[in-house]
């Protein structure tokens, strides 16, 4: 069936905002080039996803009522997803096989590695989609292949050297790699996906070659690596697909109108936009430091606090007036694209990093966990598009540190250079996904195999 050129792809996403966004955008890109594409996700998240060009179908994680929050533990959730997900994904493929558009490829989120077994069972193409940078994935790959020991240590004090990467210190690595075994269920899953990486027909990465060129050169012979990003809605980069100003999936209600009306009244590049993505749970003490750091910076700010609203000091809320706007969720892309925004304080989740870079907004990196410390290091040192905070002995970013980083990016000595760099990378991101760009051509090559 691998040679059957039916041109129907199932794109399977993990049901979290930072995963649905790039996979849905990829699905839309494939559909815009004439492929039949079906996005498969869990019933709980399915109702938040909209597309006129991509079919949306449920597959089950075993918790159809309210998803992950219904499960007793991370391990129980992942086990259930593997068992029930494999079965329901198989049923979906069987349903299409008798419908006149049989599926000939599964593109699956790297957090769902069992989908490759389903692809093999049906003898169709299997391709993994990496939602982290290729650099971060290569670090996991080195560990899962015994090229770097786990937990990672730096006893001699010398930086860690890996092909295609700059020298890295322990705090630059993805959060949990220096913590002692046993692995958390997520970390075990991450290693599992990298053990079988070479068995995929394609390894798609939401990044672009120019951004990680040295690493790509090192990895090309080792994985079937294909850079296809950045998967940011076309309206902001190349205008190829449609006018969508959002990904088309929001797990929370965005206060978009309120934000845009407020931003419309502010001078160009005068506003700090601050958000820590969809997963971070910021401690009350840290929220307070951020609040006073923003206040001390004396700039306008728009802050997405998500569930941290009750951690904001009353004294702060009572004094912000028109200087600041606090919301629980927004359309981040529309905010970043607004001319009033001049700085993005971000946790450096990979989507946020690509969005800041693609839309040309200088960043202050405040990494929390996972891949974020590595992304923040690259933002500051490799791409020069921002600065990253230093944490104190307690692991806190103090208000003084945050204020200093904001000034550095908005008005400091490095400010002009940072602005020039981010515009340069924004142009490179646009080139990559535009007609004839490297990511665009890579997607065309993939599609040619399926038709
Ligand atoms: C996590 C990881 O941090 C990330 O690196 C990984 O690749 C995917 O899982 P998350 O922490 O949510 O994701 O951050 P990020 O990757 O930045 O994704 C957040 C997404 O939510 C972005 O696409 C952003 O545009 C969107 N968002 C965020 C909103 O639409 N509104 C908001 O108010 C905040």
In short:
The chain has helices at 17-32, 43-46, 74-97, 115-121, 134-144, 185-195, 213-219, 256-264, 284-297, 314-320, 332-336, 350-358, 372-382, 399-410, 415-433, 438-450, and strands spanning 8-12, 36-41, 55-58, 105-109, 125-130, 202-205, 225-227, 271-275, 300-304, 324-327, 341-346, 363-365, 386-388.
Please write out the topology.
Blueprint: E1 8-12, H1 17-32, E2 36-41, H2 43-46, E3 55-58, H3 74-97, E4 105-109, H4 115-121, E5 125-130, H5 134-144, H6 185-195, E6 202-205, H7 213-219, E7 225-227, H8 256-264, E8 271-275, H9 284-297, E9 300-304, H10 314-320, E10 324-327, H11 332-336, E11 341-346, H12 350-358, E12 363-365, H13 372-382, E13 386-388, H14 399-410, H15 415-433, H16 438-450
Parallel strand pairs: 1-2, 1-4, 2-3, 4-5, 5-6, 6-7, 8-9, 8-11, 9-10, 11-12, 12-13
Bound molecules: uridine-5'-diphosphate-xylopyranose.
Residues 16-19, 21, 131-132, 275, 277-279, 304, 329-333, 349-352, 355, 370-372 line the site of uridine-5'-diphosphate-xylopyranose (UDX).
Commentary on this structure:
The chain folds into two domains: 8-246 and 433-450, Glycogen Phosphorylase B (Rossmann fold, 3-Layer(aba) Sandwich); 255-428, Rossmann fold (3-Layer(aba) Sandwich), CATH 3.40.50. The mean pLDDT is 94. β4, α4 (115-121) and β5 form a beta-alpha-beta unit. It has helices at 17-32, 43-46, 74-97, 115-121, 134-144, 185-195, 213-219, 256-264, 284-297, 314-320, 332-336, 350-358, 372-382, 399-410, 415-433, 438-450; strands spanning 8-12, 36-41, 55-58, 105-109, 125-130, 202-205, 225-227, 271-275, 300-304, 324-327, 341-346, 363-365, 386-388. The strands form two sheets. The protein has a seven-stranded parallel sheet with strand order 3-2-1-4-5-6-7, with helices on both faces. By secondary structure, it is an alpha/beta fold. The relative contact order is 0.12. Bound molecules: uridine-5'-diphosphate-xylopyranose (UDX). The site of uridine-5'-diphosphate-xylopyranose has 25 residues, from α1, α11 and α12.
